[in-house]
Amino acid sequence: MNDDTRAFAKRFAARPGMNGKMPSGNQAGVYASTLAYLNAVAATGSDNAKDAVPEMKKFRGKDKLFGDTTIRQDGRVVHPMYLFEVKKPEESKYPYDYYKLVSTIPADQAFRPLAEGGCELVK
Fold first, then answer.
1. Three-state DSSP class for 62?
2. Exposed, middle or buried, 39 (CB in 10 Å: 0-12/13-18/19+)?
3. With the C-alpha atoms ordered 106, 112, 114, 116, is the resulting torsion angle positive or negative?
4. DSSP-derived secondary structure for 72-120
5. Mean per-residue pLDDT, 2-8
6. Considering all CA atoms of the chain, what is the largest pairwise distance in Å, rounded to the nearest integer?
7. Measuring CA to CA, how many Å separate 42 from each of 48, 53, 63, 73?
């Protein structure tokens, strides 16, 4: 989608055992969530969830893979969502150049509002 996501995909594909395969959206999500956790552990000096999770929920910023991101009190990661169209073969300029961005759904429209979730963690 952009230089940051392409750089991540190239690093991922170059890892031993990946055989040049690019990451899926799920793999990128696991990477981003693990990185958020590790950053919270580094910030708190603790790997205890009671310390790390509240620190993670303070994050408001730009994730290199998912754009402007927040982690709500219910634990939902909220970020823009994207609608892509698969390119025609002649539109692709290089390997793995498969998608054309059609539209971006703002985070506040892409996820159910916090107040409508019924999560017991939200007081």
1. strand
2. middle
3. positive
4. -TTS-EE--EEEEEEPPGGG--STT--EEEEEEE-HHHHS--GGGS--T
5. 90
6. 53
7. 11, 12, 17, 20
Pick from 43, 40, 107: which is nearest to 77 by CA?
Answer: 107
Determine the Cα–Cα distance for residues 67 and 76; give it in Å rounded to an integer: 15
pLDDT in tens, 32-85: 999 999 999 999 999 999 999 999 999 999 888 898 999 998 989 999 999 999
Residue with tokens 């994050």: 59
| Distance, CA of 35 to CA of 40 (rounded, Å) | 9
**Partners of residue 82 on adjacent β-strands:** 104
Structure pTM? Answer: 0.81
Tokens of 119: 């999560």
Residue with tokens 């073969």: 89
